[in-house]
Amino acid sequence: MVSIDNGTTAPGQNSREFGVTIAMADQSGPFDYHLTQKLLALCEQHDIRHQRDIFRYYRSDSASALEAGNDIRTALITFGIDASHGWERIHSHALRSIAELVGVYLQSEVHIERDKDQLSGLKGFTHQPITPSKKEAADGFPSDD
User: Please, what are the domains in the chain?
Assistant: First the structure.
């Protein structure tokens, strides 16, 4: 599980406005060594600007997944922001770097054999009710019928 979140640029933090920040740990502890190293290697191989950081006063969604009992590898990648939960300022370079890393990660090989196993399927998963929309014309716009 690779979580994506904001990484506030602040004194004592190594997050930057440019590139992707790969977290080594948050307040719940370190992230998976193998997955984190893979993300770092992908950045190096694909010339994606990056830096490392530790978020001592932040708890990621990955921690919740582990506490819920999931036996999964976790990592956190962030885009640098000037502030959070209000007037946020994000540089497009950081967002592009996140997108590039996620793209190459999704296309990369799975190296640890047990990670190839599917955790669950969609059987029994809830579905949202879908209300049919108005009939659309061939041009994609709703018809007057």
Answer: 2-116 (3.40.630.10)
